[in-house]
Amino acid sequence: MAGELLQLARAASRAALAVEGVAALGTGRFAEAATYEGGEKVTGVVVKDGEVEVHVILSYPLPKPVPQIAGEVAERVSSDTGGRRATVVVEDLEVER
Fold first, then answer.
1. pLDDT band of 97, cuts 50, 70, 90
2. Would 9 disulfide with which of 45, 48, 54, 80, CB 3.0-4.6 Å?
3. ω into residue 67 within 30 of 0, thus cis?
4. Distance between CA 73 and CA 87 in Å, rounded?
């Protein structure tokens, strides 16, 4: 289905950003983390066969431990992308001032 990858990437993006402690989506450290389709892209989410990889930047001070935040991101992303396996990459912390 045309646009399916972007729809999944957008759903994963919304799900990740809805988790307490997530400040933003990351762009990838050594290669751009993004999903491309039809001349468009969603940065911070890589959709693969049966899997979604989400790159996040967390807010500091943290509202809860990093593994707990990452677990919540994975659960929400998996739920919102039809049960796909979700891998969460914590790229950085953003200090709130």
1. confident
2. 45
3. no
4. 9
For residues 33-58, one letter each, b for 16 or more C-beta atoms within 10 angstroms of the residue's C-beta and e for the rest, the string is: bbbebeeeebbbbbbeeeebbbbbbb
Residue-wise pLDDT for 24-43, tens only, equals 999 998 899 999 998 999 99
Q: What is the CATH number of the domain that holds 63?
A: 3.30.70
Single-letter residue type at 97: R
- Residue 22's nearest CA partner among 78, 84, 82, 96 is 96
Report which of 2, 94, 4 is spatially closest to residue 47, judged by C-alpha positions.
4
- For residue 48, the enclosing domain spans 4-95
What is the total count of domains within the chain? 1
Look at residue 5 and give its three-state secondary structure: helix
d(CA 97, CA 12): 28
- CA quadruple 89, 6, 39, 25: dihedral positive or negative? negative
